[in-house]
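Appendix B. Chain record.
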Amino acid sequence: MNNLAELLLEWYALYARKMPWRDHLDPYAIWVSEIMLQQTRVNTVVPYFERWMNMFPGISELANSTEADVLAAWEGLGYYSRARNLRLAAQIIMNEYQGRLPGDVKELIRLPGVGRYTAGAIASIAFKADEPTLDGNIRRVFARLFDIRESVDTPSGEKILWTLLNAELPEGRAGDFNQGLMDLGATLCTPQNPECGQCPLCGICQARAKGVQTERPILKSKPIQPHFTYVGAIIREGNRYLLVKRPSQGLLGGMWEFPNYRVVNEEAADKYLERLMAERYGVKVKITSKQGIFKHAYTHFRLTLQLYNVKILTDNLAVPDMCWVPADELLNYPMGKVARQISKTLKSNEKRQL
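Structure tokens predicted for this chain:
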């Protein structure tokens, strides 16, 4: 075993973070946790993981679930395609792998939502395979250890990292090695103010030796986030509200929300709403008042939603993927953060009016 691996594994044995999925011997639990951890912090994932495992304790239960149940369990965690892919992959596993998660990286990558990083993590942790993995923490740790001067979020930079990881991987201990690197990056080798004095690898870190550890990793410059304006409608009939279901594919696929549209002119957003409702759904409406403004930042863009209370003038409304929902049932429908915020506001208003 090389020096790097030996130092890291000694440290990991003493300081490994406590996580509920690390107590599971079932590869299914490891798979679920790795999907949830994609671009999401551990502290955020823990309650979702525990709730998910209670609702879908095994692959068969997940495969037999509905998309609505899966999205509801995932609500608030973001990147909802991960939840849909988990369910789809579970169905593939039941049909093609006799209900058992495959342990080979090439087979794992065939599953929806599983890429090279996730496949390596699952194979090494759940199946003890000698496979490397590469997440944001590991990328940062190795960029500093080997003073990589190329952008590590480019194909050429990642190729360097994968080569180094394969070379340093300790035979038979890949799972602990990978998790040790993840924990080191999350606790000591952090993006800002790394605690080099406590790092077990400080003595062999090339960036530290040169005093450039805070300048690594080198990343491509991020584009400026665009800002979009949306206009939305609160359509009420008695104590019921009209919801629309988003297409299954794309952002917030399969989730429910209040009718809304992206507009170009923010100052004239309300003027678009009546026309857009007529064009999109064949529904004639009239704006009665302004409900409020809601804002949210997604990974790649920011949005401002101008929301209006709207009276519907069309009789016998029958539009696909629309339904009337009682106020006290709004929380039962899977929604994105903006729609959920609106739902809570409406429900709170209903209580005050009683």
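Further analysis of this model is presented in Appendix C.
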